Amino acid sequence: MRFRFKPPKMERIKQQVDTIVRFLQPNLPFVNCHMVDYLTEQHWKRFVPVAMQCELRTVSDYLQAKDIFWGQFEPSFDGEERNGGCFPAVREFIKNTRQFRLGGAEARGTALTLDEFMDALSDCRRETRLKMTELMNVKKCHEVEVAAAVVASLCNGMAATQPDTSLEDILVIDAGDGKGYLSSRIALEHGIKVLGVDCNEENTSNAEKRRERLKTKIPKAVQKSNLEEDEHFTNLLQQGSLDTLYRTATQLIDFNTNLIKLAQEYFPGGHHSTFCLCGLHTCGNLGPNCLRLFHENPTIKGICNVGCCYHLMQEQFVVDEFYNPTKVSDNPGYGFPMSKYLQGKSFHLGRNARNLAAESIERACTNRENPSDKLGYRALLQVVLLECGEKKSHQVGRLKCDGFVDYVRRSVRRLGLEQRVTITDDSLQELEERFSAELEQLKVFYLIRQQFAPVVETLILLDRLLYLRECGHDRSFLVQLFEPVVSPRCYALIALK
Ligand SMILES: C[S@@+](CC[C@H](N)C(=O)[O-])C[C@H]1O[C@@H](n2cnc3c(N)ncnc32)[C@H](O)[C@@H]1O
């Protein structure tokens, strides 16, 4: 297959990694701080750049600042800045942090757009033609339509380059298949065999149930899409062959899993010679382990992997505060750093930084999402706990509540501290009143910190790309598959051998 795109030079990826590390390193204490300690440890004074502190002093300033953050993706943002808009330090901070994310000035040219990637695949390109939105929400529908076409295009490309190989000889393995949204679509629309693998038995069972329901929806979808004359769909409808194309397995995938043996077990007599490993929102270490399996298996010729839940991965150079060794067996191995280059620097991010990397600024800004009141309630509860002499750090977790007083009562009950925290409702209300400005300030603080989210994610993705390049896979790419507002984890690592 001719691939009409020159991947960025390895030196350039390393330079970008260096630049981001230099930017992130001094900000890591900020990125990793706990919102719980916001009031008791004076986060605003400790972490917010002085120029911004000087600009933002009143509740009215905080409200206006939130508007600036939310408007950062609007075309008027840069114009207002040039015209001397208010709060220049806030605008400068936003502009500066945005340079260090994919597509920003300091990380430009590394990620391809979907169009660039599909154009580069030239004649191997496959499109989504089937109009079939059933049994999926809007987000999943968007992801599936794009990712299925990309995976099918890769398989097409692989078939074109391997001697004596047709699409029939290729088998896709979908790691972390879930309910089989992507895998069933690859099989159904593109006629490629897929094995969906998930460690959760219930998910496998649901994927199978969904496959049965899907079959009943095919005729209408084919008709709606004017594909009745298409040979593949005619055969599919006549033979009802979705079961032979899409199968499921329950198996935990780690860096040692023999996926090829598993595929042979589920597709006996298939004689598949070439495999494509895909994964949509492979949480925690599953994403990194898929990249390792791609590298180590000579017959896995292509990979398309979108990660998620970075907080669930284990880092090599830091032990998480909430580290739970029993959980590690779910997903063994280190997920970060993957590249020898970053390993050589013993670089670590930290749990809160990885948590942050999974947040979506684009979505938050488009929806003008106000950070939850509960963040402030928890920070204020910390004030109460310290006043009551509670030194231990407590994890309250998610809870439903109706205002601050209710929040405190429920949390105290959950923590079993009723005997120690005896503060009255009136005193709690007085406390909330007294801290009302700080609670509004906390929301701005949250948005300031959230600016680092795409920067941390960029570093995680560049590290994975660099790993593939270090392993000698020159045709490795980062591609923006999805619209970030619809699907925040929108970048895929794609590689071909
Ligand atoms: C975020 S969900 C994505 C599901 C599906 N790909 C989708 O996009 O709808 C991640 C899935 O990966 C599965 N999973 C996580 N770690 C795994 C592992 N190590 N091996 C196999 N499956 C895993 C989970 O059970 C879950 O179904």
TrEMBL record:
CDD domains: AdoMet_MTases (cd02440). Residues 139-316 form the Methyltransferase domain. InterPro entries: Methyltranfer_dom, METTL25, SAM-dependent_MTases_sf. This is Methyltransferase domain-containing protein.
